[in-house]
Amino acid sequence: MRGFWLSPMYKSPMKDFGYDISDFRDIQDEYGTMDDFRNQIAEAKRLGLKVILDYVPNHSSDKHEWFIKSVNREPGYEDYYVWRDGKPDPDGSGKLLPPNNWVTSGMRGSAWQWNEQRQQYYYHLFTAQQPDLNFRNPTVVQEMKDVLSFWLDVGVDGFRIDSVGCMFEVPADENGDFPDEPLSGTTEDQEDFDYLKHIHTIDRPENVEMVYEWRQLLEDYQKEHGGDTRILMTESWSGLDIIKPYFRNIRGVEGAQMPFNFRLITELNADSSAYDFKNVIDSWMAIVDDQHSANWVLGNHDRGRVASRLGIERADGIAMIELTLPGVSVTYQGEEIAMIDVDISFEQTVDPLGCNEGRENYAAKSRDPVRTPFQWDDSNLAGFTSGTTTWLPVGPNYKTTNVKVQEADPKSHLNVFKSLMMLRDSDTFLYGDWSTIAVNEQVFIIVRDLKSSDTYLTVVNLGSSVQTLNLNNLVKDLPKTLYYRVVSGGSAHTVGNPVQTSAVTLQAYEAFVLRTRRSEDRKMRGEICERWLA
């Protein structure tokens, strides 16, 4: 099964790239109409692709009618959001201070915004234009379930749940007050998110229970309407102990099929060794039982591109690691052609996280460098638009790093990527066992094997020195000869050629996938181009 996940395209004032939603049931004008979206779904189904929507339950826009009604205390909407009275300033000035010390995530300063009309503060984990919905209000819970049902009726196949660990805050005390969060001790900057330990606002157990309810909604929808399983993906950057229950609880209640695995992003960098890769991969697999699938995420719209983080010279090898591991791979647009982060000036910055930091520190927080337009070809604006400008500047390397150029180069990153994607359809990768080997600091190996099918070895040199291996000393029962199945762009080897198992040499940063039998090569050019670039 293959599909694509769309970032928010709902009605929005666009204060945070569409994550500030003013209507959960309509399409933002510049993205098209609801008819356009239905046509997109129909075309996706024709191509055998699933359509996954970004579902943003934690908050709405302050322009949403719910918030406007809540500000006005309209009956039924008074508690749609998290409102609290201010605290009198101890200086006797009569000024009302925020209810407690909670701070925003990435936006700096208090997470409480004064509303003059209602004469209360409202809570916003993110920007002040994104007030948090009150998930302790059953009406809000049902309202957001109805949003899921609406889009299921439109025809989507599932949802990626944004900021899943942020929906519930600690229950208020008998006086309706929220406690302060304790200091972290990691920074003295009182406006920084890291100033506090977020024990009252992040990773509450109620968040997981809500995911179970949403999974049940999707299961019930399938029973009533038929069709394939609808998918839930969850976004949380927390530790494995927090992530594991999102799969299923100890009572057997099912949650998300895909709690996103960000550990290839958070735990690895350009200095990571093969031992680090093994530890990160094996520790994730340890929390995935036989009833669920692993997943692997190398990058997304919030973190630096993988070719920039880990090095462009490792791009093919890292793709081989991700795409030959068991389970689901998640590709952020541009990874398939090894796009890199783009330098964005402060004047060009549009990300509120960067803008809020000011000229001196914007680059440390801005996510704009990873969000630049996809590079299709070497024409004006990289073929991304027929217009005269783009929201963010196109990367300066678009003349050489683009789909058109790489399609014509059999050793390009794009064609390596396509070869790997095709390989994933083989029985060994669909049903086979797996193991990982850290040979030394530089060389990492993934073994995929299945009885009566080819065994495959992904062999990656993460370092800058030549490495020679006797694979017989590392993997049992290998034949004397293996065959190159996929090779990195800079490799001198040719797909289909043999190599002696006892003498496998990797040049600096070289990577390849070897197999035990020289079975018939499937056509990569026409078949994969039609499948992936139609």
Automatic annotation (TrEMBL):
Signal sequence segment: none
An example Gene Ontology biological process: carbohydrate metabolic process
GO MF, one annotated term: alpha-1,4-glucosidase activity
EC number: 3.2.1.20
Keywords annotated in UniProt: Glycoprotein, Glycosidase, Hydrolase, Signal
SUPFAM superfamilies in the record: (Trans)glycosidases, Glycosyl hydrolase domain
Family as reported in the entry's similarity comment: Belongs to the glycosyl hydrolase 13 family.
Name of the featured protein: alpha-glucosidase
Biological source species: Culex quinquefasciatus (Southern house mosquito)
Lineage start: Eukaryota, Metazoa, Ecdysozoa, Arthropoda, Hexapoda
